[in-house]
Hints:
This protein is α+β, with helices and mostly antiparallel strands. Helices cover 48% and strands 17% of the residues.
Amino acid sequence: MLHDLRYAIRGLARNPGFAAGAVLTLAVGIGAVTSIFSVADAVILRPLPYPDSNRLVMVWDQLTVMRVERLPLIQVAYEGYRDLNVFDSTGVFWPLDRTLMGREGAEEVSSMMVSDAVLPMLGSSFAHGRAFDAEEYKTATPAVILGHALFERRFGGDAGIVGRTINLDGIAHQVIGVMAPGFDFTLGAGKVDVWTPIVHMGDRHLARLRMIARLRPGVSVQAAQSAIDAAVKHLEETEHPHRGPNGEDAGFRAKVISLHDQLLGDYRSATLILLSAVAAVLLIACVNVANLLLVRAVARVKETAVRRALGASNGQLIRQWTIEGALLAILGGAAGAIAATWGVPILLKLSPAGLPGIAKVAIDGRTLMFTLVVSAATCVLFGLAPLSTASRLDWRGVRSRRAAAPLLIAAEVAVATMLLIASGLLLRSFSELRRVDPGFRADHLLTLRLQYPPARPIMNRRSIQFFSNVRDKLAGLPGVISAGAVSRLPAGGSTADSRGGNPFSIEGRPFNPSSVVPQLAHTQTAGVDYFRTLGIPLIEGRTFSEADTDQAPHVTVINQTLAHGFFPQGAIGQHILLGAPREGTPWLTIIGVVGDVKTAGLDQDTLPQFYTAYTQEPTLAMSVVLRTVGDPQNIVREASAAIHSLDPEMPVFDVTTMDDRIAKSIGQPKFETVLVGMFAATALFLAAIGIFGVVAHSTEQRTREIGIRMALGADSQRVLGYVVTSGLRPVLIGLLIGIAGSLAAGRLLASVLFHVTATDPVTFTLATVVLGLVAVTACLGPARKATRVDPMIALRTE
């Protein structure tokens, strides 16, 4: 064995070009597939970093009649579920942005309010201090646990912060602990900065909370869903907490979903697409190396014959070939692993949509084991390829190689075709997404967010006046054309936001869940000049003005979709109301209709929407929008200074241009398109090299045959056509197989395409033409060389 290994090393050293080409080709394929596997491992394969994470589930309210799933704003009937015999424990939590104040200035931080069962359920661990005790869950004593990232960033990692107080939303909170570095829990991509207890758990139904539970051993998600369905039916029939005098929200149900699917399910399809694409690149790389080994095997027929004459058996020859293939696989795998250690950080840095913190993407033991398995598989794939020629000593081995090479090329072209079609579909999808009109002018807009501290009274004229002063102050800055404010900026929602909205009533038509067109609309609170600042066109009526105070009749502005869908005879002067009519809640008079705006993202359908006036229904947080003459980034400092001149403790955060915000909202499909496009380009390049190599070697082996044809009168054009046709025959077979495979695999891509079908004929045609042209180009070089063969020299060639 050692002798064979030394012989293999010497053989590769004598052919450094061959060895370097094979190792580099494998390194590209193995490195790419290892990098993407590290993401797939974190997103799909690896369990969550919580005790018995496979038993953790989320319970969401659901309006089945309106097909609205995972809607967090409807109350969770927590107390009604917690005693079900399918759960070991249940808890509720609520993420909330809060303001941390101190000598360093005000800072917006993410907080998580939790009930007493949540942290034990998640297996929380602490770097310093302790967890909340029973008394802190029962009383309103302000206590807080710091997330480790905030502990390091804001407090310099000083353990002495435990026991001291911090100012959170204007209220002093005692720091009782610091979370361990590796612990986190969030439904988004960011980390939790502070943890606080949820108090007053005696209420039977808790509004705006999210429920997490641990299943009992042996209980499946499906069994829990059945138990929840029965409990919800009982609640709906007896004491439904949402049913008003007109029966709004009927059809209330609950949805049980595993925590893993909740946190990472949205990334599964994209990850599988990337993994499939990079696996295709690896397969093509393996085919190319197999072809290299076959060429080398034919070139070494005489050497093999000498070894056989000296007593080497077929088994020894096969072992020698296998060891050489294994050596190449090991070297390629090692180089690929090194490339992956560089590639993963770059991959994460380039990805615009960060994964949740619990998805630990890294090159670890599991990933390296995967690399080892892939390397062994590649060794088997191409290491056995030349065995047929190794075991034959005559020209039958060459004929065997000639039969195997077209099959490998057909397989290579088929995989490249599928990857090229997938890349084309994603590119067309992204192109369609970029052409979507958001409903406003996104150029020269600066956006920033203000969070009014909850400790201050918000429902009064002072807070309304503050935001009015902010608008006037910012509108007066040099280079600012106008300023407006809104509770939620457009084109930044999630897919979940697009599945429904808030139930609303029309005067004379109360909310009816059984209606063919459900009365659902998204609502936003907007300030004066918001529509003018964004350039949202006014279709009819007027927008909000200074006269729309809290003492004036309450008004609303609706979008075209809502107007056309519910007021075909005219919307101005009609009255609507969020939810069902109830005593003490005023009707909103429609005063204007504005153009549709993509509220829930550019890839989502336009939603019915109505706006309320901030001066009549103020909110805690508002996003301010400034339209500028020049580059919006040039006035960031002046805008922040203007706001702090009105309130030094007001945090200004999430400052960015609207162009950047829209680009970020479509960043993930762009990233997927670019990455798959890079893999497709690599596959196309490798396929071209493979076709060129096979045709070149085949032409060289047929030098005598070509000489005979030319001696018998064949001209250069016929020889050229003969060589090109021979080279394109397996390419055509591969194209047909690749097209069939793309049609079969279209379902995987369909979930991420926008306004493009997975069987788009234009994309299929273009991909086929591009690959065909590349194949013809790859064949022309060897074919032209064949036409310059001297017949007399060719006839002397063995």
